[in-house]
Design goal:
165 residues, alpha+beta, Lambda Exonuclease, Chain A, two-stranded antiparallel ribbon, 6 helices, binds iron/sulfur cluster
């Protein structure tokens, strides 16, 4: 069973995208290894910000941190999403737990040359803790959460799994 300390950015991302996706992932089903979307993400990481080194937090791995204690994340998508913000918040939470007082997360979208800055406020800290509780609740669910509506599944790497009758 997953513990609070095991929860990483991918768990938070799936929580926000689809609890069923999180539930499946927690049970070892990972079709996204073959997904072109993931491959694009890896390609963006390989080419966009090569001067900085990832920071390994165990379960979580952030792209890099600057000298002013801001976490930086490079996103392959063109549009910002609540999941992106939640991931950044989660990394700040993890850093604070380790005694590193992260100021917040800076999200970079090279595809659209956008940069968003999310300060790690008290409210953000509370939300990060609540997100961890939510991941644990999904993990403890005995059966998989319902599917999203078909239109919201577009592009999800679990589509074949969920929709092949
Ligand atoms: S295909 Fe749809 S229901 Fe299944 S995990 Fe993906 S988003 Fe969720």
């Amino acid at each position: 069973m997953i513990t609070r300390e095991d929860i990483g950015g991918v768990h938070i991302k799936y929580l926000y995208h689809c609890p069923r996706q999180l539930w499946l992932y927690l049970r070892g089903i990972r079709p996204e290894a073959l997904s072109s979307t993931v491959q694009l993400g890896e390609a963006v990481h390989d080419t966009s910000y090569t001067r900085d080194s990832p920071v390994d937090l165990g379960a979580a791995r952030i792209d890099f941190m600057d000298g002013k204690r801001w976490v930086h994340e490079v996103k392959s998508s063109a549009r910002p999403s609540p999941a992106d913000e939640a991931q950044g918040r989660h990394y700040c939470h993890r850093l604070h737990a380790l005694g590193v007082e992260a100021e917040g997360a800076v999200l970079h979208y090279p595809a659209t040359r956008r940069t968003l800055r999310h300060p790690y406020t008290d409210a953000a800290a509370q939300q990060a803790a609540a997100d961890i509780d939510s991941v644990l609740a999904v993990a403890a669910a005995p059966i998989s959460p319902d599917r999203l509506s078909r239109t919201r599944c577009r592009g999800c790497s679990f589509t074949d799994y969920c929709w092949t009758e």
